[in-house]
Structures are given as structure tokens and as C-alpha cells.
Amino acid sequence: MFTRPLVAVALLAVVVAARADDITLVGGKKLTGKLVAVDAEGVTFNAGGTEVKVPAKDVLLIDLGNKIGVPVKDQKYHEVELTDGSVLRVGKFAVKGKSLDVELLAGPAGVTAPALELPLSSVFSVCRNADDAKHRDNWQAMLRTRGKRDLYVMRTAEGLNFVQGTIHEGNADGTELTFEKEGGAKEQLRLSRATGGLVFNQPSDGRPPATLCKLKDVFGNSLVAREIGVSGGGVKVKTVSGVSVAYPAAAAVAQLDYAQGNVAYLSDLTPQVEAAGVADADAKAFPLLEGKTRPGAFLRDRFLGDSPTLTLDGAPVPKGLAVSADSALTFPLGGEYREFRATVGFADARHGNAAELKLTIEADGKVIATDAFKGKDKARALSVDVKGVRQLRIAVDRDYPSETAAYLILADAKVQK
């Protein structure tokens, strides 16, 4: 298999900076030192000559001081997604037998690419030319409406076409696929003619192993890990999908992100939405509202208008919710988290002047926090104990009808274990 990196030029805009490792805890505290070991229970960290065992539930991020790989402008690459959500950026790929051979993108000079083997059973999709933004959008749209068969995808001027069936295996040199059509007939298809990519409809793994963290490397790959071993200067990873990846040196690893297991951002969750229509009394008082519904109940990580960046007090925020007045969102927490945090206010002064809003937080039907926001109020930090809570409800209301949309911003809204 060809897992060597491309070597013609340095294709990733990364620089390795040798420095101490940093570990960020869920509460925000940082430790600086050296990562010694990682297991399911936590991490061992040498800080100031003393080894400290930190429980996994208290870890937010481990930064090994190496830059995450980012493709440079005009870099061509394909993207392999595994069944667990791991993503590999590759320069070449081929299906040989029941395995996918890949050639990873190059990393910094002197950093060796990891060794890995990819059985087809671990692969969800291969998107060709993933560097093309329009193609990526078309690809994602296709995935949302796909059926329950494998797809052999062809790219055309009008978009993506595909043939449904079953991809059994590739030939010895990786140039052809044995493909069974829906009617049962088998034929050999050229891999090169799958100009859009391939999709594998893998059987559902009823109870997959628990995720430990997400590893991000200097080659631009991200691995959803269930096990990590640190020894002899190298790092070994086993993904949730069962793929083993061996990095000869820790210089190839950028971060171990534990947020996926310990922190959940509300903008990444799917809530039950309550959004009232316009009441008859409101319609009489404001005729322009008659026959209309309220604006969208909420927006994830974005805002309204031609410049959709989510802001709080005029400053951009990467994660958060914009919740419309007269709406409520209920999030299933399953009793797994201990604290809900957010910074709450208006997008900017203009939006604040147009609204007087009340925020209500409920835990399993019981009100646990309320606050009111109006006029030129500045954003305020909110921290609520949600230990054992199964249903978290967030409601935004106003006391008078209005023809103007009004949103309350919950920046960095998250629940922590």
C-alpha cells in the first residue's frame, strides 16, 4: 500500500515548533510540561518534574506544540471519511482487494507520515477533489439524500450522478472495482471514472466503543480515537472504527481534543423546537403580522443578513446560538453533564435597542435560572448546575408584540461533564 507522503514540495502550511506540551482542563486551568501516557481513565503529565494523573473527564485539550496541517492555496487533495467520523486528506487512493490504499499529504520536513491500513469495512466515503468548495457542497447535499446502497459517483457539469449497488472489492493494481448493480448483475468499473468519489453503505455498529478524544495531526488528518498509547517517542492510535494508526514520532501529532467527550456545544446538538405563530391579539394590534409566523426559532453559529457571522456586543464568536423571541429549545442531556455555561446578550447595540427579552432556563420542567436583557445591556456570563438533568429547556420571551425580529445570543453555549 502507498502510505508514504507526497514529497515533491511541502504541501501543507505547517511549521513544527519544539516546545513544551500544554494541557487545558475543563475549568480553564492550564498545565505546562510533558505528556507521559494516555489511557481510558485519563492522562499522565509531567509538570515541573512531578508526574500528575489527570482524569479524562477533566481534560479539555492537550496541545503538543505542533501546528495542525492546513492545505495551502490551490492544494489538490481527496478526503477519506471513516465510519466513525475520522477524516484523512490524501493525494492518491486506490481500492485493492478489500482495502483502501492511501497516500497521505506531506507534512513538515523531517516528519514521517503514520503507518495505517484501511479495510473497506471501516470506510464511509472517498470524496475526490475535496479542495473544490462547490464540489464539497454538492457532495454533502448528495449524502443527505442517499439511499441504502453503495454509490459509484460521477461528476458532471450539472452536478453529481451516481450508480447504486454494492462495491465488493478492487483488483490487484487498484484500477478497477467489482460492482454489483441493484438487479444483481456484476461488472468491472474503472476507479478513475468515479470522478465524484465512492460511498460505502456500511452496516450500523449498534454499540460502538466509547470515544476517548479526537487526534489532530500535522498532515491535516483528524482521528476519532478510542485508544492512544505513548511510548518510545511515538504515538499509537486505535480509532472507534477499529483502524490502527502508528506515528513514529510525537512531532507528527498536534492536538488531542477531549472536548467531544467532555464538552458538548449546544449548537452541535439537535433540540426540540417550540416556536409560536402570531397570536390573534398581536395581529390586531400590529396588522403587518397578520397571517405570518415568527422568524426562525434559532440559528447555529451564524446570524442574520448578508454578513452572517455570529456576534456578541459587536465582536465575532465562533460557537453559539441566536435564539428568537417567543421560542424555546429543549436539549436532551441524559443526565450526563454537570454544568451549563454561556455568555448571553445581544448581537450588537442596534439589535439590543430593538428588544427587551427574558431568558428562562428549565431543568426537567423546573425553572432554575431567569434573567432579563434590554436596551444597552452588556453581555453577561451564565453558569448553571445541571448535574443529573435529562432535559434542558431554554426559552426566550418578550412581553409585547413586535413586527421586528429579536434574537438573544448565547455565545459559547455548552454543557460540561
Automatic annotation (TrEMBL):
Residues 1-20 form the signal peptide. InterPro entries: Galactose-bd-like_sf, Glyco_hyd_98_carb-bd, NPCBM_sf. It comes from the Bacteria. The keyword Nucleotide-binding does not apply. Pfam families: NPCBM. Keywords: Signal. Gene3D superfamilies: NPCBM/NEW2 domain. SMART domains: NPCBM. Residues 259-417 form the Glycosyl hydrolase family 98 putative carbohydrate-binding module domain. This is NPCBM/NEW2 domain protein.
